[in-house]
Give the backbone structure.
Amino acid sequence: MAKKGVAKAEVLKLIDQAAYQEGAVVSRTIIDEPVGTVTAFAFAEGEGLSEHTVPYDAMVQVLDGEAQITIDGVPNTVKAGEMIIMPSHKPHKVRALKQFKMLLVMIRS
């Protein structure tokens, strides 16, 4: 069993792991281990995460919709079926251009 999140060996439909809520960002931790995390997010249109940095590389896979992910001042439009790597120690922020869902994989070691 993961320390937080869902049971291991459970079949999951990624797109259903976080539900859209008007005016909100919803997240659900799937795996939370010392070496990294896997988290599903659902963003209402126009919602986002403010600029921040983390000391770990992270991968975002967009499952549904479209977002602008700005990394080190450079905006990137990412759509369903696409992914982007956010390098450690680089400021980044996320904004939903349309409602969107993403899977965030953060590697800590």
About this structure: The mean pLDDT is 93. The beta strands are 25-33, 36-43, 48-52, 57-64, 66-71, 74-79, 83-86, 92-96, 100-107. The longest strand covers residues 25-33. The chain is about 0% helix and 55% strand.
